[in-house]
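Deliverable D5.2: sample structural annotation.
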Amino acid sequence: MLRGGHACAGWRLSVIASIALSVACTEASSGPVFRVSTHGLAACPVPERARLVLTAVGDFSATENTSDALPLDSAAELAAPDRTLAFEARAELGSSRFHGYAERTASPDVPILLWPEGAACRVPGVDDYPAPGGGQAIGFDPESRHALVVGGGNADVPSASVAALTFHTGTGAVRSDESPQANLREPRAHATVTPFGATLLVAGGENPLHGEEGARAEPRDTAERFDPGARRFVGSIPLVEPRSRHAAVVLASGETLLVGGRGALGDALRVLELVSPDSERGSIAGLPALRAPRLSPSAFVLDDGRLFVGGGTSADGAPLA
């Protein structure tokens, strides 16, 4: 159970009406207090009488034990070492095993959602969303623990192209809202979603309601900001280059870098674009270009700060290394 350090706190419990909790932690008495809670998915409930172990993860050692009680689907205030980085939960009964993990944030609340190990668990959407057809963009805000699913390409369900829903990765709550502020201002499919200051950035994409799928669909030259706390879109940002089916990464500066994709003429792009949460504008000034134009590439930032870009296809669909 060690991730990046020694386990300091572990809770053992039987899930019936309440949970017996044992905590192992040398520094807990002088550390911060967290409100830790465990939650299950309706489609994959944790079995009754399951044995649950909670572990604080960080760079510290464990010695003495104490005990308390923690009812399922409720919160308990628990002291933990100051260097706690995350909490991990494991539940087990026979061959049924569940696992949950939550990183520490600025909030003292630590909800942990238990997922079945080695099996899929269906998370229902809301009304007609997500709709068939694909093209939805998904991103995650670690501070609020919300995943955002947005847009998509289905001309038979036009409302789905501007719809959005949030999934709380700590509680399993799925929410959507039909009000105009909770929906995209423009239909978008094959956009990207990245953390963007205190919001999420939904960048680019294509209009799935006009033109044909793929090369003839109109790419967007705008981005929209989503506030996960208010569950509202709070403004648009102009981009320099229309693009869809691109990659996006967050740099150490907090800026989002848009990589490759399909441009206004249906061609694969070499152009990179930097979107700043400070200026709320896109810029291509001073940025290098990709050596090969790429449609639907993969991109991520390496530990040394360099950017890796690979895969994807050329405009004619030929795969790239």
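Annotation notes: Residues 1-29, 64-69 have pLDDT under 50 and may be disordered. The radius of gyration is 22 Å.
The annotation will be released with the project's public dataset once the embargo ends.
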